[in-house]
Design goal:
The chain is mainly beta. The chain has 3 domains: about 110 residues, Immunoglobulins (Immunoglobulin-like); about 170 residues; about 130 residues, Galactose-binding domain-like (Jelly Rolls). The protein has 2 helices and 30 strands. The strands form 6 sheets. It has an 8-stranded antiparallel beta barrel. Strand 11 and strand 12 form a beta hairpin. The longest helix is centred in the N-terminal third of the chain and has 12 residues. The protein starts with 8 loop residues before the first helix and ends with a strand.
């Protein structure tokens, strides 16, 4: 489901000025009429629950509120309604002469829960098969769960290179006992604060009763924020926005977060600082009760049972389906080799369809740290739909801020090739997660097939 953020007032002002400006003095036109603000709608060919909206006047700037917690823009737009009910749709139009607004109710007769079958929705909420409700917490016992870096991101990418919090370093600030519950039902979001939250010192004046925290910055009283909503946008960066006064983790004045990585057991977020435009904050969350290897989230109140599954290289797919995790909206499947030829005559392979993020990929956790004293290369057989860069990244599961990554240029498409990258200069006994980025830096790069992960 596609969510589009509403035009900012600044953007609208720029557009209005550009419409009205000439080389001589600007002229305003007639104010828009009710007829200009009228719109029609009809069900799409795809689904009766996907409604197509069209403005009566094609020569205006159009901003939509679809009545379902999502926004849109353009003289033609689509709204998606998974749940039956009556929704009030509001259109606001802008012209050189001013603005006008109109509303209409639409009635959705039946549920169409297939519209909720998105990997991001499934990860956030557990998916329809698991009740559609999931609670996340800050992974406080894992070093690097919270930090800050430059905005825009520096050479290290989306990474808190200025500062990373150590294990439970911010205990007592008001953040570690907070819980964040996502529901597919009306996209409800509950922020459970247990009475207080952790905020940036620059935000203290906006919170009554805030006081300096013993761990730096400020703690503020704040009641649970229940019944709010969450909205996903996949225009440009994939972002998530929370309604009302709700937010996640350390508050820095914003309610929209970029999703850097999401999986069944990890949610890694980046967000800007409203008072310091050159800073970006980072948060790492896990499902409530999950042990990521750092002891669990939520201030250590999680289940300490070790649920980590690790594998040893080499990895193939002949008799087993090792547990790989996708991110960036990629998918994973294990299937018969679609091209038994050349360097790969194996019967079974892994297939991944590249997500819409440029950094989309997959990873597998290893049972032991990699040693490069004798075998220095990481290799994988790849069938790519197009030529381009293939990135291999090695991470430390316990501290993903420790990593090394290198690229390989795939110069032949539509046949099996060997990607082999020398990691002889990488630290030994440090990395136990193998991450691959097929079609690096290209969104929706196509379908890739992978096989025979080895160290040689």
């Amino acid at each position: 489901m596609n969510r589009i953020n509403i035009l900012s007032s600044a953007t609208i002002l720029i557009l209005l000025i550009s419409l009205g400006c000439k080389k001589d003095a600007p002229e305003l036109g007639d104010p828009p009429t009710d007829a200009d603000a009228a719109f029609t709608f009809e069900a799409s060919a795809q689904s009766d629950n996907i409604i197509e909206f069209t403005t009566s006047n094609p020569d205006v700037i159009a901003v939509w509120d679809f009545g379902n917690g999502t926004k849109g823009q353009g003289t033609k737009a689509k709204g998606s309604y998974p749940s039956k009910g009556t929704y009030t749709v509001m259109l606001t139009i802008f012209s050189r002469g001013g603005s006008a607004m109109s509303t209409q109710d639409i009635v959705i007769a039946e549920d169409d829960l297939s519209l909720l079958s998105s990997p991001i929705f499934d990860f956030l909420t557990g998916g329809l098969d698991n009740g559609g409700v999931k609670t996340w917490v800050i992974d406080s016992n894992l070093a690097g769960h919270f930090g800050v870096g430059p905005n825009p991101a520096g050479a290290a990418g989306n990474f808190p290179e200025y500062y990373e919090a150590g294990e439970n370093e911010k205990a007592g600030g008001g953040m570690y006992d907070d819980k964040y519950r996502f529901s597919l039902d009306a996209f409800t979001f509950d922020m459970i604060t247990h009475g207080d939250v952790y905020i940036n010192s620059a935000q203290a004046g906006n919170f009554a009763g805030s006081y300096e925290a013993s761990v730096g910055d400020y703690t503020s009283p704040l009641d649970d924020q229940l019944g709010e909503t969450w909205t996903i946008s996949t225009e440009g960066d994939t972002t998530i926005t929370f309604s009302g006064s709700s937010f996640v983790g350390f508050y820095a004045g914003v309610h929209t977060y970029q999703i850097i990585n999401i999986g069944e057991n990890e949610l890694f977020l980046r967000y800007e600082d409203s008072e310091a435009a050159d800073l970006a904050w980072y948060l790492r969350l896990v499902p409530e009760g999950y042990d990521s290897g750092g002891g669990g989230g939520g201030g250590g109140g999680g289940d300490t049972t070790d649920t980590t599954v690790g594998y040893a290289l080499p990895i193939d797919f002949e008799n087993d389906e090792p547990e790989f995790t996708s991110f960036g909206n990629s998918t994973i499947a294990y299937l018969d080799n679609p091209d038994v030829s050349g360097i790969n005559t194996s019967a079974r392979v892994l297939e991944t369809v590249h997500g819409n993020e440029t950094w989309a990929g997959i990873f597998v956790d290893l049972e032991d740290k990699l040693d490069f004293s004798t075998a220095t290369n990481i290799e994988v057989k790849v069938w790519a739909p197009d030529t381009g860069d293939f990135r291999i990244k090695l991470e430390n599961q316990a501290n993903t801020a420790e990593f090394v990554e290198k690229d390989f240029s795939v110069s032949t498409a539509n046949e099996w090739v060997l990607v082999s990258i020398d990691f002889s200069d990488a630290a030994a006994d440090t990395y136990d997660r193998l991450v691959v980025f097929p079609g690096w830096d290209v969104p929706n790069a196509g379908t890739f097939h992978l096989d025979d992960f080895e160290q040689n």
